[in-house]
Amino acid sequence: MRGALRQKKLKSGKLSLYIDYYPPVWNPQAKQYTRREFLNLHLHANPVTPLEKQENKLYNEIAEKIYLKRMKALMLDANGLYNKDALDADFYLYALNFIRGKQREGVDTTHHETAIKYLKRWMGEHFKFRNIDEIFLKKFKEYLLTTNSLKSSKSKLAQNSAASYYDKFILIIQSAFLDKYLPEDYSLRVPRISNVDTFRQIIDDEELRLLLENPIDDDTVFRSSIFALLSGFRFSAIKVLKWRDLHFSEALCTWYVYMIDPKPERSFKHYISQQAVNILGEKQEGDKLIFPDLNYSRTRTRLQEWFARVGLKDKAKFHNWRHKYATDLIEKGEDIYVVSKMLNHKHVKTTQIYAKVPDTNRAKAASKAINKHLN
Predict the structure, then answer these.
(1) Shared domain check, 295 and 344
(2) φ and ψ at 242, to 5 degrees?
(3) Domain range holding 70?
(4) How far apart are CA 349 and CA 328, in angstroms?
(5) How far are the Cα atoms of 67, 91, 143, 163, 373 from residue 123, in angstroms, in the given order?
(6) Which family does it belong to (predicted)?
(7) Considering the domain boundaries, does residue 199 fall inside one?
(8) Cβ atoms of residues 166 and 192 within 8 Å
(9) Which of 136, 139, 168, 363 is most buried, by the most CB atoms less than 10 A from its CB?
(10) 181 and 306: one domain?
């Protein structure tokens, strides 16, 4: 591996200093091989004044130091030795490039980005690789398990959320180790945050009957809720749903929605029933929103009023319509893989939270556990 410090004449007349590598070297941030590394140092081609001569001398000295540092790193890499200079690299810059790479692959990076936000809140805006070791990972775990949510200073970050953010952070750490920014993969010596089973306040059939018999006097909140119940859409998707997203398949003789689902940020073709379409009202043309007045704050307040009226205040969450949609499909015998696709889940594992055996099925099973030899 060899390299040389060279100059390139610019249109401005100045000389740009760069390192010419041969053969090309791997750039872990750009994820490609490169021959040239421009140092953002520019010389005066024909220095005249003492200041110009002094600038040229200074920039040449800086370029020489960078060049020697790069050659040392390449020599260590060629001999399988770790380059300690990598520890001075900016972790946040590496994380940003990692996240952008995932986005180009179509990966939902929301939790990756949120993990970095928690890290910045804890460590500040400047963070280098040399700060990362086994002790740091343990402390970051403890921080996530004890800190308040970014959404509210009064509510503690849920353990399952902490687990997800920590896992995404560890993916970046492991990638950095493979790219030789870290001397070892410290995550191997630090157990991940375990998930805990959460009790989901899902609406049952009797409670749904009470809600439908005592509807809220807010047409937008009522219709958007029932549409979520019949389609399984999240609030974020319903809020941006437009009439042009609604289509009818002549071949299948059914309606479907084709849109970019906001949360996973990927295209989603979702079949819905005629009953779900009916709740939307008369179909319109163009780019108009189906629920133009839908507002999260107002919807949350009105839902609390609606549910409290029938004694269900603890279940007053818009997302519960989606839960009810999923559990109803599973109780009716629909395959979990199909339900996963209906919910636009990337992994079936995410859908399995709805697949616990319903009480009605368990009650029926219990009635069959009878021994004919006993009275």
Answers:
(1) yes
(2) -115, 160
(3) 2-81
(4) 18
(5) 31, 12, 11, 19, 69
(6) Belongs to the 'phage' integrase family.
(7) no
(8) yes
(9) 168
(10) no
Question: 252 lies in a domain?
Answer: yes
**CA-derived radius of gyration, the chain:** 29
Residues 6+ apart with CB under 8 A from 80: none
- Residue 366 has a pLDDT of 56
**150 shares a domain with 125:** yes
Residues (pLDDT < 70) of the chain are: 1, 26-31, 75-85, 106, 197-200, 264-265, 353-375
Cα 39 to Cα 62: distance, rounded to the nearest angstrom: 9
Could you tell me if 260 and 145 lie in one domain?
A: no
Tally of domains in the chain: 3
User: What count of other Cβ atoms lies within 10 Å of the Cβ of residue 340?
Assistant: 20
How crowded is residue 196: how many other Cβ atoms within 10 Å of its Cβ? 9
CA distances to 57, 227, 259, 344 from 287, rounded to whole Å, are 62, 19, 12, 23
Please report whether residue 200 resides in a domain. Answer: no
Q: CA torsion sign, 343 to 348 to 349 to 353?
A: positive
Specify burial of residue 216 (Cβ count, 10 A radius: 0-12, 13-18, 19+): middle
pLDDT tens, residue by residue, 33-87: 788 889 999 999 999 999 999 999 999 999 998 888 888 777 666 554 444 567 7
| Tokens matching residue 264 | 């996973």
141 and 272 part of one domain: no
297-313 pLDDT, tens digit each: 899 999 999 999 999 99
- Measured N-to-C along each axis, helices 91-104 and 110-123 cross at an angle, to the nearest 10 degrees, of 170
Q: Return the bridge partners of 260, or none.
A: 267
DSSP-based three-state secondary structure for 363: helix
pLDDT at 273: 93
Q: In the prediction, which pLDDT does 371 show?
A: 56
Q: 43 - beta bridge partners?
A: 15
220 shares a domain with 248? yes
Q: Which residue has the tokens 């936000």?
A: 117
Which pLDDT value is given to residue 81? Answer: 41
Nearest residue to 114 via CA among 99, 127, 128, 125: 99
Q: For tokens 């004919």, what's the residue?
A: 372
226 and 271 Cβ atoms separated by less than 8 Å? no
